[in-house]
Amino acid sequence: MKRSRPNIRDVAALAGVSHQTVSRVINSDERVTEETRQKVEAAILQLGYRPSSLARSMAYGRTFTLAFIALNFTDYTFSSMLDAAECEARQHSYFTLAISAGENSNYAELVNELFGHQHVDGLIVVGPSLIEHHVELAHEAPVVYITPRRSPALQYTVDSDNRHGGWLATRHLLEQGHRKIGMITGPKAQISVQERTEGFEQALREMEIPSPAEWIFEGDWSATSGYHGFEALYSHGVSAIFAQNDRMAIGCIRAARDHGVRVPEDLSVIGFDAGILLRSAVDDSEARHRRTGTPGGTAPCGITGKPTTAPSACHHPDATGCA
Q1: How many Cα atoms are found within 13 Å in the side-chain-facing hemisphere of 53?
Q2: Among 101, 113, 143, 221, fewest CB within 10 Å belongs to which?
Q3: 189: exposed, middle or buried (C-beta count within 10 Å: 0-12, 13-18, 19+)?
Q4: Which of 59, 55, 49, 40 shows the shortest CA–CA distance to 7?
């Protein structure tokens, strides 16, 4: 005869506690003592108990599911944020639903479908155009935005520390002895670009190093623009280039190779993301990385109520210790 699947009351009986206490342990309730938690976890392991997601949803009136909405997931930056958000959400017993909104999607209809039918408990939204046109969601649903934008309308925002990251990248090049440092930016209208540029300029000012306009090239985040950025900057005699994302750094390094310029012997190149794209595109001896954090890992904290320690900037009007 097939054994029935163990339930929460079986765990409670084995651990010598109430089924309510087992539920608190499963949901990481801080009111449970460490001794009790260990007993319950041992009973769960011994019985092979797995909580029913349907029962949990019915008991708490929640789906324990978050929607992560981006313009697409072919962009490595977006997909890496999703990966970090999903890992953090699972730490708090939440699942993550990835949704590609696309440039032409009916975004309002999508959100109404998710919340109107109670498919998700909250949203994580990344992508400048989504944020720009739909800030009203912050008043209607639990939403965390991954954006450098600051607005009273956006109650919860998470982002990398762009200014400090730009400073770190430039400072690293200065410490290597470079004094003619070029920069390939993203689109200058974007806040993240402006902040990374401010960090770049601050590091140069601290060392009283000039930054002529011809040493700065405006790209569009693509490897192709990084390629063109190298061609524009290297002719002005720069010995190092700070590319504001890894894709442009990859394009810059490719251009250097095509023009017979050795990296890092003849030219040092530093990116911003320190992601797998740059590490897989060049040998370790050809690039220098500094990790600036993955903001996606911090995003679930605004919905689950559990702060994280991801190395990203987190803004909340009532929070302390965030910048």
Answers
A1: 6
A2: 113
A3: exposed
A4: 49
| pTM listed for this prediction | 0.66
The topology under which CATH files domain 65-160+295-315 is Rossmann fold (3.40.50)
> Helix 162-175 vs helix 191-206: angle between axes, to the nearest 10 degrees?
40
Strand partners, 91: none
Domain made up of 8-51: CATH architecture: Orthogonal Bundle (1.10)
Q: 76-96: per-residue pLDDT in tens?
A: 778 888 988 899 888 887 888
Q: What are the structural domain ranges in the chain?
A: 8-51, 65-160+295-315, 162-286
Q: Of 223, 232, 285, 215, nearest to 251 (Cα)?
A: 223
Q: Is residue 189 within 8 Å of 222, Cβ to Cβ?
A: no
Report residue 40 as tokens.
């319950």
246-303, pLDDT tens digit by residue? 999 999 999 999 999 999 899 999 998 766 666 655 554 344 444 444 555 555 544 4
Is 65-160+295-315 the same fold as 8-51? Answer: no
Alpha carbon 2 to its chain's center? 46
Q: What tens digit of pLDDT does each residue of 113-134 get? A: 776 656 788 888 886 555 555 5
Tell which residue, 200, 193, 189, 252, has the closest CA to residue 226. 252
Distances (CA, A) of 19 to 30, 43, 92, 278: 16, 12, 20, 50
Can you read off the two tokens belonging to residue 104? Answer: 């032409």
